[in-house]
Design goal:
Layout lengths: L7 E6 H14 L5 E5 L1 H5 L3 H9 L5 E4 L2 H11 L4 E4 L8 H6 L3 E4 L2 H14 L3 E6 L11 H13 L4 E7 L11 H20 L6 E5 L1 H6 L7 E4 L10 H10 L11 E6 L2 E5 L17 E6 L16 E4 L2 E6 L7 E4 L11 E8 L2 E3 L1 H4 L6 H7 L7 E4 L1
Parallel strand pairs: 1-18, 2-3, 2-9, 3-4, 4-5, 5-6, 6-7, 7-8, 8-9
Antiparallel strand pairs: 1-10, 10-16, 11-12, 12-15, 13-14, 13-16, 14-15, 16-17
Helix pairs in contact: 3-4
The protein binds pyridoxal-5'-phosphate.
């Protein structure tokens, strides 16, 4: 028996990725580094499949959330690719992080002091990026602690490489946040100027995620931490329209990297006047032909999509009917002449002329792409295709 048997699979398209990398390189100034953000299991694409694929396109810099993700990137790449940890590091992981010469965000005195302690112990310098609190109110050193932090860095220079100064914007993808972002920009720029006066400018000053790189290009600096764009999605409809208007473009220059596919497990006819599946949520008003697909909520196909979801079979956009089960869903195929067991079912992606976008797959609205992608289960196999 072949194992694992796959009720569904996620395909990662190399050619789509190339399109997006080319786009990002054009978007960023020439000497700005593109750091590929691969937190959240590479936005659901799978760190173990996605990262090696990116290397074929010259990517050597990665941003992750945690030490655990850094470990996975390091392990799969088997190179000394640059890795920057933007979030969680458990105290007991810090020595490993320093020993591996990874870069990491420092957003409080606690981690700063612990870094020096760990660096002393293992005899290597800690590569730190000071994250400033400029208004997001998540992690970040508050303004009034910035000077004491710099003094501490100077006093402990033999154990610290001051590699970066950074911040993160609180919703650069929407004009609603305009004033808040303007404040953040001012505060960050003031800190960068201050460092210049002290002649302490680190190698990487960085502030921009995808949305900020499009909406606030003056803030790009030495490195941009780009996530969603590289996967072929826009941070919001607003950023796409802004980009298109500015560049007199009417098409979408990005390509979706990910598709999610399954296959028909069973086909059958249901008489008029019957309920389909559990309960009474779908009733046949006409003789109905259905296909059963072996993907349910335990595989990440949300139960909320009961009677709402759409899939593609034989290039046609078809409705999910009845409730999503734990391991299966039902599709109304009445309008198709012929469907066979084993036919490809596209849950996200394209087939013939049809397309199921991540956005239509979930709800319309801001930021849902991020959530839907990141929630794709870890155990669905990922396959890199051309
Ligand atoms: C997630 C994240 C990014 C990347 O954001 P995108 O919108 O996906 O480009 C950049 N910086 C930080 C600190 C992040 O948490």
């Amino acid at each position: 028996m072949q194992y694992p048997s796959q009720t569904s699979r996620i395909e990662i398209s190399k050619s789509a990725y190339k399109t997006n990398v080319d786009f990002i390189h054009k978007l960023l100034p020439k000497n700005t580094l593109f750091a590929s953000v691969v937190k959240g299991n590479a936005y659901g694409h799978g760190i173990e499949q996605f990262c090696p694929m990116t290397q074929e396109f010259g990517i050597q810099h990665y941003c992750v959330f945690s030490a655990e993700e850094a470990y996975r990137v390091r392990k799969i790449l088997q190179t000394d690719a640059y890795i920057l940890i933007m979030g969680h590091i458990a105290d007991q992981e810090l020595e490993w992080v320093i020993d591996q010469e990874l870069d990491f965000f420092v957003f409080d005195f606690y981690r700063l002091e612990l870094s020096v302690k760990a660096a002393k112990k293992i005899g290597k310098k800690a590569n730190i990026h000071i994250e400033l609190e400029t208004g997001m109110n998540r992690t970040g050193i508050p303004q009034h602690k910035f000077k004491p932090v710099l003094k501490y860095i100077i006093d402990n220079q033999e154990h610290i490489n001051f590699k970066g100064l950074c911040t993160h914007f609180a919703g650069a993808e929407s004009i609603t946040n305009f004033h808040r972002i303007q404040k953040q920009k001012k505060r960050f720029s003031r800190a960068v100027r201050g460092l210049g006066r002290l002649e302490m400018r680190p190698k990487y000053v960085h502030a921009c995620c995808s949305a900020a790189a499009i909406q606030h290009p003056s803030m790009i600096h030495d490195m941009a931490r780009i996530g969603i764009l590289q996967y072929g999605f826009w941070p919001s409809a607003e950023t796409l329209i802004r980009y298109q208007t500015r560049n007199k473009l009417d098409s979408n220059p990005l390509k979706r990297v990910l598709s999610w596919k399954s296959q028909v497990m069973e086909v059958k006819d249901v008489k008029v006047g019957e309920f389909i599946g559990y309960g009474t949520s779908f009733f046949t008003n006409i003789p109905t032909k259905i296909a059963i697909v072996p993907v349910g909520y335990s595989y990440g196909y949300a139960r909320d999509l009961s009677n709402v979801g759409k899939v593609l079979i034989r290039g046609k956009r078809l409705s999910v009917i009845g409730t999503i089960n734990m391991n299966a869903l039902t599709v109304d195929i009445t309008e198709l002449d012929h469907v066979e067991r084993g036919d490809e079912v596209v849950l996200i992606g394209t087939q013939g002329e049809g397309e199921i976008t991540v956005n239509s797959f979930s709800d319309f609205g801001n930021l849902v792409n991020y959530e839907t992608l990141a929630r794709l289960p870890m155990d669905v196999p990922r396959i890199v295709v051309d």
